[in-house]
Known about the structure:
- By secondary structure, this protein is an alpha+beta fold.
- Helices cover 56% and strands 17% of the residues.
Amino acid sequence: MEKIFTIIILLSLMITGCGKEDSPENALNEIKIALAERDSQKLSTRADLDEFFSETYDATTIELAKKYDEYKEKYPDDPYFQHSGEFLTEYNAENKTNHLKFLDGVKESFFAKIPEPSTPEENPTAYVANEFEKIRKATNATVKEITLDEDNHATMTLFVEGDDSLRGRFIGQMIFKLGFTKDAENRWHFDEIKNLDELTPALVDKAEIIWVNL
Length: 214
């Protein structure tokens, strides 16, 4: 369980980077402000976090299963990777409701500003929410490129870099390609991370660092 929700929390963190006509960059900036202000209503105007978690959960499961044998060899002490890709796919499908319920609790704790508990066991969702906030503050994002197509979709290339703090070094440097869609009112909405296939191995490595220290 720790693997899948850690990866999704890390992924959701990566949408926190930085005219009259709306743009994907405007959308991203408003998402950043909404997270900084802990304003769930403002966030919902630019991103559906529940849908993002659900779709990313499924997409991440597919990517994990593709290279399951590699992770099995690389992490022999992790029970999550000591079966098969088929096992992981079935396990995640069977436990998706519970895993997303946990993420929903993290989201609620974050926006409600629940204080950090003394130990993770005391309040797991509040603990993860507070860790998210610490990592958010230790991370900077720079828009490198935005490409538009004729179907009201856009892809943003985002360079994400952590600062010199412990959590910033944990994030390191990564490139994310974010997908946006324009609605009927010409407002842009964040939909997906489009390069999960490239990111998943690095995100698994980071999740393993967290897992071995829990």
